[in-house]
Design a protein that fits this description.
Radius of gyration: 18 Å
Largest sheet: 8 strands, mixed
Order of helices and strands: EEEEHEHEHHHHHHEHEHH
Structural class: alpha/beta
Distance between the termini: 34 Å
Shape: globular
Oligomer: single chain
Strand content: 15-25%
Number of helices: 11
Strand order of the largest sheet: 1-2-4-3-5-6-7-8
Number of strands: 8
Amino acid sequence: MPTFTAPDGTTLAYYVTGDGPPLVCLPGGPMQDSVYLGDLGGLTAHRTLIRLDLRGTGGSAVPRDTASYRCDRQVADVEALREELGLERLELLAHSAGANLAALYTARHPDRVDRLALITPSVFAVGLGITAEDRLETARLRRDEPWFAPAYASLEAITAGRATDGDWDAVAPFWYGRWDDEARAFRAAEQRQRNDEAAALYASDGAFDPDGTRTALAAFPSPVFVLAGEYDVAGPARVMKEYAGLFPNAELVVQGGAGHFPWLEDRGRFVTAVVAFLDGGGVFSSP
């Protein structure tokens, strides 16, 4: 587990696995140990994955100033990692909430990003709206699942602003393309891997300037790939299409049957789509 020092003196860890050109990977959560990314469905056969543990997570140290958990303040950590690796430009992949950090990094350092892959991205950094009906419409695609009725009732409560603690646990099946033993184990591990204090500060006041970020991304010339899950209530396909439209050179793929973690549902489809993008393939079609 190599480490490096962030500009504020915090020791940060990263992990290097696989073969091929380097691909820097930013985890979501927010503020979750990068271990959950694993080998990203076998992507390690095509790329050397460099998984960053964000400050206060995994092998990285807790910062002296916990206000530095704010997303925009972590842009300097990504730039320090690039310098540590000795790379002029990055191939950058980000999942979920990690896409907020990737968007801010790209907006601030567009000349340092060669290709940008956003996997079921969060939209806070770019200020897109996801309506209750966006989420409920996506959820209704699962209406034939045996767990659907109670999970949907809890999702209605959440989207209406009347959720209880139990509702958040009840909607867990909607995050996965298959609610099976693997998904249950993944979910249980996720709860242990997140730094809740850091997560609460990640999007705190001042973290995001959506107008400024969208303006910067509209001028970003390099290729961008947005991968959505057909069943992902966190990032419904309509909004993911809007996200891709923020860039002048972006492609959207909606992976059929996938939830918020598309490498879990179909490793082959996920890896094929990501590698096609990273290797400079042409226009994508949904795998």
